[in-house]
Amino acid sequence: MTARIRPGPPPAGTLAAPPSKSMAHRAVLCGALAEGESRLSGLAHSQDIDATLAAAAALGAQVEAGETWARIRGACPLRAPAGPVDCGESGSTLRFLIPLAALTGQPVTFTGRGRLMQRPQNVYKELFASQGLPFRQEAGALTMAGPLRPGCFELAGDVSSQFVSGLLFALPLLAGDSRICLRPPVESRSYIEMTRAAQRRFGVVSRWADPNTLDIPGGQAYRPRDLAIEGDWSQAAFPAVLGALAGDVTVAGLEPDTLQGDAVILDILRRCGGRIEPAPGGFRFFKSRLQGARIDLADCPDLGPVLMALGLLCEGETVIVNAGRLRLKESDRIAAMEQELRKLGGWIASDGGTVTVRRSALHPPAGPLWGHNDHRVVMSLTVLAAAAGLPVEIGGAEAVAKSWPGFFAAMRQLGVEVETDA
């Protein structure tokens, strides 16, 4: 699919942030582990969330879903699936489910698409090897078998919080107590806290023994409950940046006291000089004269692409640090944004996990931009084109379906002139 963005009036209006994809993943899995029926409301379907719903069903949960809701009757103990579990392109689905699938004590095979099965799983590979359990990752498939035994699990704290969350889901169901020891620095701590918060709502607890050590009592049970999914700060960052750069945009449906790490977009935009005011149920972002800033992505890596786009329209220089994990996402997000932003005349350079962006005199590209099969790259390029008033075509725009299928409709709601051919 190709998206065509044309210059138009300044973006303005109000839209509701889609429900949090991160919290929805966690709520679905907690419900799938609970003995009884859980009802989730305010759910937004996307390729990633649908992959987690389908995987939960494959492991024995009864799942019924409508447009904005899901009913899940849990299965504990989980059952080994009849065939491979397709995780689509969802890293959360795969990494959350590996320890849970190990609870079945049977071989389980996971498959996926895009770059998913190329993304490193060495943390789990080493963990399974330490317990003498099989773990094999080949082209297009990953096969492992349990059962995991309770004990002490040592992990690097700066690889991905998804490994920590995966263990947090499974370890409370083991007969004995466990401990997760994280080698500092610990990045994306906010995502670990989101997992723990979701678990508490379903009756499962853990505690920090110190800043790098989690104690998980064994013998616990998930309890069913009804839960409304809060708004997604990761997705809200796109209209927020658009408003700060070019218009008057209100994003509703956002919890100000959220655990979501990407709520730091408020602080980042304010440090850049953005004018932001509270609005009913959310925040209003006004066009502002923005300055470059130093931005640390250690706890908010998903903001990386849109902040690179932002930097091109900020006065001076923007330096983004601790961005190395962006190279291991749906695309190498640093290389992808460098390639596409340079087509627009943007000045951007990287050195490992540090990205530097300078204000640039942008121009229409000589040909189409490419989305690199990455939803956040497509959305970031759309925001930049709309804010800069550039006529742009983006190939591979269907990638937005991974997390926000209604993204282009939301942009049109704000007055952005965007058309798609599908």
From TrEMBL:
Segments forming domain Enolpyruvate transferase: 12-410
Cellular component GO terms held in the UniProt record: cytoplasm
CDD domains found in the cross-reference section: EPSP_synthase (cd01556)
Residues holding 3-phosphoshikimate: 21-22, 26, 160-162, 188, 302, 329
EC number, as in UniProt: 2.5.1.19
Superkingdom, natural source: Bacteria
HAMAP family reported in the protein's UniProt record: EPSP_synth
Protein name: 3-phosphoshikimate 1-carboxyvinyltransferase
Organism: Candidatus Faecalibacterium gallistercoris
Origin organism lineage: Bacteria, Bacillati, Bacillota, Clostridia, Eubacteriales
